[in-house]
Amino acid sequence: MKPSNKQRYLKPFVVLVAAVAIGIIAFSLPGLNASQLDVRFLLLFLFTVLIGARLIIHIPSIKGELTVSDTLIFLAMLLWGGAPAILLAAAAGFCSSLRVTRKVTVHIFNFAVMTCSTFLTVIVLHSAFGPVANLDTGKLSITVVTVMAMMQYITNSALVTIYTGCKTNQPFWLTWRKYYLWASLTYFAGAVAAFLIAKLITVIGFYGTIAAAPVIGIVYITYKTYLKTIEVSVAQADQAKRHAELLRESEERFRSAFDYAAIGMALVSEEGRWLQVNRSLCQLVGYSEAELLTADIQALTHREDLGDLLMQQSRLMKGQVPGYQTEKRYIHKSGHEVWALLSVSPVRDPETQSLRAIFQIQDITDRKRAEAQLVHDAFHDGLTGLPNRALFIDHLRLAVARSVRKESPLFSVLFLDLDRFKVVNDSLGHLVGDKLLMAMAQRLESCLRPGDTIARLGGDEFTILLEDLKTHNEAIHVAERIQRELTKPFELDGRHISTSASIGIAPSTIGYEQPEDILRDADTAMYYAKSGGGSRHQVFETSMHTRAVKLLQMQSDLRHAIENDELFVEYQPIVSLETFRITGFEALARWKHKEHGVINPGQFIPVAEETGLIIPLGEWILRQACTKTREWQEQYPMDEPLTISVNLSGKQFAQPDLIEQIEKILLETNLAPTALKLEITESAMVENEEAASAMLRRLRMVGVGLSIDDFGTGYSSLSSLHRFPISTLKIDASFVRRMSGQNENTEIVRTIMSLAENLGMDVTAEGVETLEQVTKLRTFGCKKGQGFFFSRPVSAASAEALLRDSTSLGPISQHYDNVESIESRLVA
């Protein structure tokens, strides 16, 4: 049920009480006797209004106070009767409120309350004992005093309770009990004081009492001082009591926090015995509280950490350190290690003053395991679990240092790289490739001694550190053992996969001072083994490093040559085998080094491929060839426009912007797309058939011709050839040169011709060097040829001279009457 809102009755209540008070004063004024209002009453009135309301005596230990004005009102009632007392109460109520507030409503209410309560007191006294003015002060009894105090208290507290209850909207009974219950004592004290003063006036007279006022003042001041002293004592006692309660509460909170703390906590004696332990610590080490309290800290500490703990504890107890923090291991009751962060601080026993230590023990086992895992991951390969490059270099650095100090026997480093691992990834997928690497790691470990170190550097590269060798032949024997083990196929996902490895060996006898140097030389030796066909090992020689340095210099020089236009293009004619006319050229990159002369393309093209320089080099050749071809088309027009063939490397073929680059060059040189033929090797297409097929189709949409260069030597399947939009097959020179009679090479060329005819492709034979080859090719239906029989690659000026002098090389019989002339031309 919703409580009633008492505040709405507050203002009407104040108005009502004030109206009653005014009525009481109006009723009481005619009853004033002028003879009674003498100088004595006037002095009492002034003292009450000006001073009495300000003189307050607090009664200790109760919620009350004794005001002098209340006492003087009672005194006026006893000496002069009801009407003067009512007038004095009205004035005192109004003036006393002036010292606490400026609100007029409060002033009016205080005036009204004092007026009404005094009036009712007078009425009750008159009814019980007769007219108040006729009371004999000399014969006053305690009954009169009690009735006077009770009526004043009941009336006053009732009116004020109603006022406060309405203002705070609280029940009247609770309000009276909370604020005004103890106030009754103050009224009784005031009435008794008035009774005593009245008795004193009866004895010594009114003016004698005034003469005794200084003594009363001194008593008052003394009493106030006494009360202050009592108040201070009471405050101190209360403060001590609160301090004791706070201390008890603090101890309870500490005990609760200690017992239920999320981390282990313990109180330890100076001798290291457990004095007090909490639940978390018991759970952390697996012992019960009773078991711990019969043991000491040494019994639970890992023996490797015990020495440091005892030293730290000794320094703490001697006052050498204010506390300490350390990471240490405890032994769980089940036997396993528990890593903990231990924080220790000293404390004095409040009773015995003996020194104790507070242990705070936080379980950090999971963190330490994570840190150990991070360290392991930082120095181990995530796939195989073998040490990685960083850890291998660290081991190798120690081996090199021992070797420099002549403290250890010989050692060697083996650098191993799987042969044709990329084929496994491309054909079977990277998941199978990863499984092969893991199986490879296990097999390599089985080939080594316990003290040897094997690491995976990345990809399919592994390194092995062989220490404590008597001779370096032992390293060769290990390499041979690895080669034999790798001849055994791996069984992965139901497949049998065979592989091999190229191994480079770097012996310590060369005299290394840095671990990176020996690792570099082992890598160099491995590349020599791989260039020799793979599946073999190679011991490093200093001459290999010299050649490697030269290769590095070639890379630098090639970059400089590309940036400074030191390269040039040569052109080899492509001839119609029917008309013996030049139908086009193949553009070939050439490099004339300013110091070393002409560099064989077989030397610098692989370097360009490996370093990525083939990208700018290929773009430059394409632009030069297209520009020159367009000039020749304009100068030497033919029925079928002259074409230009340009080799496209695997890295160029994988360029995402290749199409845009080709279209831009064709637009800049104004060359028709049909005049450009791009030659792509089989290996570049089979690395990723899906991507290659999509790229070739985009190139065909541009309009350029597409040729497979060196056809027959790659890894492509004849059955998948139809998937690629190829326009021309170029038969590799190795088949053409070895054609003789009806040998297998002749049959290969015949088969390629038949295949091309079925697929609607043109064929160009490379490496044509003899008349017999020309004759056979014509018999097989080959339309175009290219080789020394017609012309070597020549400069742009010489190529233009061929076009200028004759648009045809003429019938073979006109230029080459016999075999000798052919042979002499080949030599030339």
Secondary structure: elements and pairs:
Elements: H1 10-28, H2 39-50, E1 56-59, E2 64-67, H3 68-80, H4 82-98, H5 104-129, H6 142-168, H7 172-179, H8 183-204, H9 206-211, H10 213-260, E3 264-268, E4 274-277, H11 279-285, H12 289-293, H13 297-300, H14 303-317, E5 324-331, E6 337-348, E7 355-363, H15 365-379, H16 389-404, E8 410-418, H17 421-428, H18 430-446, E9 453-458, E10 461-469, H19 473-486, E11 490-492, E12 495-497, E13 501-507, H20 515-531, E14 537-539, H21 542-563, E15 567-576, E16 582-593, E17 597-599, H22 601-611, H23 614-635, E18 643-648, H24 650-653, H25 658-669, E19 676-681, H26 682-686, H27 689-702, E20 705-711, E21 728-731, H28 733-737, H29 744-759, E22 762-766, H30 771-780, E23 784-786, H31 796-805, H32 812-815, H33 819-827
Helix pairs in contact: 1-4, 1-5, 1-6, 2-3, 2-4, 3-4, 3-8, 4-5, 5-6, 6-7, 6-8, 17-18, 21-22, 23-25
